[in-house]
Structure formats: structure tokens, C-alpha cells
Records
---
Amino acid sequence: GAVVSQHPSWVICKSGTSVKIECRSLDFQATTMFWYRQFPKQSLMLMATSNEGSKATYEQGVEKDKFLINHASLTLSTLTVTSAHPEDSSFYICSARDLERDLYEQYFGPGTRLTVT
Amino acid sequence: RKEVEQDPGPFNVPEGATVAFNCTYSNSASQSFFWYRQDCRKEPKLLMSVYSSGNEDGRFTAQLNRASQYISLLIRDSKLSDSATYLCVVIINFNKFYFGSGTKLNVKP
């Protein structure tokens, strides 16, 4: 149980295009999902907290107009990287909590590796 | 100052060795603590929670020192399969998770 999927697992796109990444909780409902970014040999950095039915909460320094988050249902959150640039190339990971199972443990998706050329 | 700091390593140890990692945190209001394991190019997976009284799970022991604001992870009888990056995670309020940059462990035959 507590499985989180992400799609796509990797994507290559041209500079200036937009890319949408999906995060799904497969066997539980997640009112809150988290989006992280991880550059090589660096820590996971929280980008935003995605709340079902309301606006996402972005961390300081993360442009909300560039990283659009939509959490339209209890099992799906999407992150759209708009007008992607090479510096956006990174490993994007989502996570979700199953509050019926545990208040604090996060279940991570397998990640999406984005390369912008 | 980073919320969570870890020695990046790598720690290179032979099979069977005992190895320990520390992780320091800066916010005394931190509530909960975890160790996650991340394999190369994969997502993090929960290894164990860290309680004030300390906890043990097989070869792994985690401890919390609130006075000095650090948590530790001890791995006994290291296996080749323990090779990974170990991330400490600190929760400061219900929705604020802070990850350390990870400590890389290489267990060699």
C-alpha cells in the first residue's frame, strides 16, 4: 500500500516549451502532496506544497508562475514547468502523505528526470 | 544557515564494519525526525523514524539528542546492499520537511 506514481519518468524537451508532470497516489487519498527538486549530488529541495482544492503554497525563491501546480483531485497533483530552460533540468520528485496510515511519513514517487536542451 | 546538515561522505567501509552518521539541525522547535535511504537515481525511501528514546531495527539504530540538536544512525555488520545515500529529515511543523544533503555510504567486499 501507499504507492505514489509519477509520469513521465523522464522527459527531454526543448528550451521554451512547457512540460507537465503528474503525481498520483494509487491506493490512498492525499489531500496534500509535495513537490521537490533535486540537482545532482544535492539535497531534495521542497518547491511547493500542493493542497487539494486550493492554491499551492510555494517555498521562497520558487516562481509560482513558472512552476504551475494543480491538485484537482485527492489522488492527482500536476506540476507544469512553463517555458523551460536548461537550468530547469533536474530530478523532480513528488510525495504524498496517507494521513489514515501515518501523520508524518511521506511516500515518494519514483521521480521525473527532466532534461531541457 | 541550513536547517539540516550532514557530512556528505563518502564513507567507504568493508563488509561487516560498523558505521555511524550524524545529522545536525538548527531549529530547536523541530518536532519529528527520520532517516531515509536513497539509491542512485531513485526516490528516497523511509528507513526509520527517530524517537527521543532511540530506536533499533535489526542492524540499524537511530538516536536523537535534543540538547545538542543532532540525530544519529548506526549501522552494524554492514552489507554490500547498504551502499546508498542516507538522508536525515527534520519536520519543523506539520507541513515543513527539511532534508539533509545526504551521506553517501559505500560498503566494499
---
Amino acid sequence: AQSVTQPDIHITVSEGASLELRCNYSYGATPYLFWYVQSPGQGLQLLLKYFSGDTLVQGIKGFEAEFKRSQSSFNLRKPSVHWSDAAEYFCAVGARETSGSRLTFGEGTQLTVNP
Amino acid sequence: NAGVTQTPKFRVLKTGQSMTLLCAQDMNHEYMYWYRQDPGMGLRLIHYSVGEGTTAKGEVPDGYNVSRLKKQNFLLGLESAAPSQTSVYFCASRSGQNTGELFFGEGSRLTVL
């Protein structure tokens, strides 16, 4: 069974600083990988996804993530954070043999942005 | 452009009471899901459905039942609510053609006293 770990529960950055949120997964093969963002009182919105091919994927709102098979990681990055990026971020993994029909989510990382 | 709609958005129950959460999607999606979100635990899958008339258990199905009588609706029932079921519940759906991308409702906050 797949699993996901987000080592950082809470991260604080200053506006304009760079950001990296960590995600490590456990799965026997190459999984489907996702990052979702949740603003307060809202549902989750997809930021980006990796299925195959180029290991650096671009998403919405200037986010990108890199799949590193050797490290079983899929870290999310943004070069310059905006105050509106303050939210909770979830990494998720899906199994290829079920076409990603069941996603397993990490515990989430809460991002605070200081002015 | 409704997407995924959950009702009710808030509910307070007493222990032992029953209730049903309704999820409706207007995107003609095949797959539908119910998750619960608790602090520090991310989202955990309760039940899901891969098509009308089918349901399956997720990670934490105990104490919940579901039904998918119509393709657009997915109901989550609590027959005898317990304080441990205090949570925020999210419904999600996805197309059978579109690998993995889930569309979420805004959540239903349930408190069991």
C-alpha cells in the first residue's frame, strides 16, 4: 500500500522568499503524485501532478515540483512567495495499477507568509 | 458552475443520533469519494464509488455507510454518531477518463456532542 509523509507540519517564510515543501512517498513502483492546496474554509484545489515523463512539473500559481525516484520525493517549490500563498498544502500519491482511483494524502504542511 | 456541492455545511449532533451528508456533482463524473479531515492527519478516505450502484470501503469506513443510487449523488450516513466522528467531511469526484485529479466540495463540519 502507498503512503505519504510530509515532514514539516508548519513552515513560515517571508513574502518574496523562496519556498520548498517536502514530500516523501512509499510505493513499490512509480506512482502518480499530486500537490493540492487548501485555503481556509475551502476544499482542496489541484496545484500540479506527475504521471510520467519530465520529472520537473509546472503547476498553477507559479509552483513547480520535482520527482526524484532515488529519494522517493516530490518536493514543491516556488521561487518567490506571495502573501496569498498562505494555506495548507497536501501531497498525495496514487497507485498506477488502479489508475490512481484511490489517493493517499499526507498530513499537510501549513504555510504562513510574513509581510 | 456548481461543481461539487455538499449539504449541509454545518451540523451539530448528539451522541447516538443519525444523519446523512449529501454530495452532488454536475460534471458527470464516474468516481466519487468521501474523506474526513482531522488536524494533523490529513485526509483519510472513508468510502468511495467507481460508478452508479457501486461502493467500496476506504481506510476508515467503520461507523459510516454510503449509497450511490444516482450517478450525480453520493450519500454518507452516520447511523449512530459518536464524538470520534467530529470532523470536517469532504466529498470529491473525478472523471473515469482523467487519472487522479479530484474536484472537491467545500466541506461539511460535523460536531458530535
